[in-house]
Amino acid sequence: MATFISVPLKKASEVDLVKPLSKFVTVSYPAGEEQSEYIRAVEELNKLRKNALGRPLDKHESSLEILLRYYDQLCSVEPKFPFSENELCLTFTWKDAFDKGSLFGGSVKLGNGAFGHIKDTVLSALNREPTMDISPETVGTLSLIMLAQAQEVFFLKATSDKMKDAVIAKLANQAADFYGDAFKQCQYKDNLPKEVLPVLAAKHCIMQANAELHQSILAKQKKRFGEEIARLQHAAELVKTVASRYDEYVSVKDLSDKINRALTAAKKDNDFIYHDRVPEVKDLDHIGKAALVKATAITPPLSQKFTDLFEKMVPMAVQQSMSIYNQRKNETVNRLVGTMREATNLCNGVLASLNLPAALEDLSGDSIPQSIAEKARNIVQQGGLQSIEQLIKDLPELLTRNREILDESLKMLDDEETTDNELRGKFNQRWNRTPSGELYKPLRAEGANFRNILDKAVQADQVVRDRYNTHCDMIALLCKPENELNAAIPSANPTKTLQGSEVVNVLRSQLTQLDEMKAERETLEGEIKAVTFDMSVTFLTALAQDGAINEEQLSLSQLDQLYGAYNQRVQASLRKQEELLGQVQTSHQEFSGLKQSNTEANQREEVLKKLASAHDSYVEISSNLREGTKVLSHHVYLLTNFLLECFYNDLTEILLKFQNKCSDIVFARKTERDELLKYVLQPQAKPTPPARPPPPSVTPQAATATTPANIPPSVPPTSNPPPMAPPTQAQGPPYPTYQGYPGYFQMPMGYNPYAYGQFNMSYMPYQATPGQGGYPGAPPAGQPYPGYPQQPPQQQPYYPQQ
């Protein structure tokens, strides 16, 4: 069975996905079937993770399917939740897959595009240094290894199917080339287990040997018997190298026997029959290459059984665009409604200053005008003076509660940031996580906005109190019984002579038109508030087509379509009011000129004006306190951008959500801090020094096929005899004799006992380490040094044909 390098699964710590994701769902989506469905999906996602990571998986396709389903679901979930350090923060702890254990014995198959995906996509999302197993160098090397192994699979399939030898030779030669690239990538790196390097070297030789074997069959078919023998000899030397150096990792006995049998038969036939000259290996034609594999992009879903648990949930880009769109929509609605309400208040104020319609109803001069009586009944129905006084009394308590929530939220951020700064100062560069100060900037900006809202609320509350104090006495008068109210209004001489006059009829007609206009505004306000449109479809379409959402352009265009006509109707209503009020003022001047003027009449009219104005102020103040809208001036309608039924109570709910957000991120940061502390507090293991090479005692020889033994020593003679010249033997790729690779760097000679004598470089003089005993005496000539691994003889190495 072929030996393949497999990557062990990373070990993960327990992570509770249900609590943070469910909290986000409950905060972001209203209670109902949709919210319940998403919470069930969160629980199912948590089960998927436990199935994929919480227990050992069998090496079977079904286990791969579990992993793929979990991966596909993560890809689907990622754009739909605000996963980030300062929003929805989940801390995943992964262990280095190569900490211990071997890479062998598995049948897990991964296309090398997965490692390219990790390198190009995943690593950019990390906010700290990756573990060694997913570092750019490691995943780059693994990608090359998987590419080589995939090519080898095609070679094995072609061999099993008994395809043409020319095809098999090209496939094998290409696989050898890929293995050589992978070997060079990790030759002098320690980011992979030690078993990887010898396996890559062995596979390079084995694939090249297979290429030579099948090419020799072609040579035999073309009656090139000398070429056949040369290629078989080359193949035999390659597998001999593998058997002598890497036998504990890869077995080549069957391949070696097959090559040797073919070589023996070829030599016998050539010696007795053909007598064809056997060429040198360097003179042979290059074997062609056929690459049938390449890195493929990872495009989810990878599982054939994948079903998105959050199919109905829109991506975060759409959710964020929807949030901004809704805010724009609310601002548009508030502007239109506010404009109409301001105009209505202005109209009421003008009529109250003219004592209309009370002046037309008070022609007798000794009874309560009908409009005043209706206003009194309206105030009593709304709770009278006690209702407003209770609302005003509750303001300080609600304000204090909101300030406490905001202060507690910001204090959590302050405390965690202080701890983070202290630990960063203590551990310096080892404290490699995003500083809390940078992470909390959005939350602090949000908190500053809330504090500004509360400060404005205090100012607005004072305006409401002052207005209430101004009209308090008249409001109290309107709350009295009808007989007491009538007695409190001064009497005046009757003006019954005006009853039925033309000016009175004109005024009444004009006031009726104003009342109709106000009623139309109430209907128009309801229509404006009832407008709905599912903007998510527009945003989803834009995201699918362009890969991004131009929220401002799309929102403004849609809002203009939805509210353009309503805006025109509002402006028409304002123009109509301006025209009618002008007519009313003109008619009122004529009416006032006809009335009999005296002191009693003036006093009565002044009281009626105050009563009408007190009613309007009561309605406005009560609405402000209940709805949270503070009309501070003619130009200011809403205190905040929020549509609130009750400003302080709803602000409390919003602040509680802000507090939960702060609490969640602080908890996540504390969990992350504890994990990081475990790492930085671990005793740092001292690196193990490399094994020393045998102590050389002679001058270097040039790296040639055979090494003369009569070179005089260049160092003072010692008791050790000079080393014997190694016999000729094939050698694998770990020991290059030329610098031909782009980006290739030599390892320091002190770390590579096999490199001395190569690259035309001299042996390094031996220097004893202080406190360490010297080397034992040399063994007899030709015998190995005790305690050191046997070094293979050296000869020109073999590489894939370029």
Automatic annotation (TrEMBL):
The chain's coiled-coil residues are 507-534
PROSITE patterns registered for this protein in UniProt: BRO1
Where along the chain is composition biased (Pro residues)?
Answer: 686-698, 710-726, 777-795
**Could you provide one GO biological process annotation from this protein's UniProt record?**
mitotic cytokinesis
Give TM regions.
none
Keywords assigned by UniProt, alphabetized: Coiled coil
Q: Does the keyword Ubl conjugation apply?
A: no
List, for all copies, the residue spans of the domain called BRO1.
Answer: 3-351
Region Disordered, as annotated, extends over: 683-737, 766-802
Where composition is biased (Low complexity), the residues are 699-709, 727-737
Does the UniProt entry include the keyword Metal-binding?
no
Report which superkingdom the organism of origin falls in. Answer: Eukaryota
Q: Which Pfam families match?
A: ALIX_LYPXL_bnd (PF13949), BRO1 (PF03097)
Q: Which GO terms describe its cellular component?
A: endosome
Protein's recorded name: BRO1 domain-containing protein
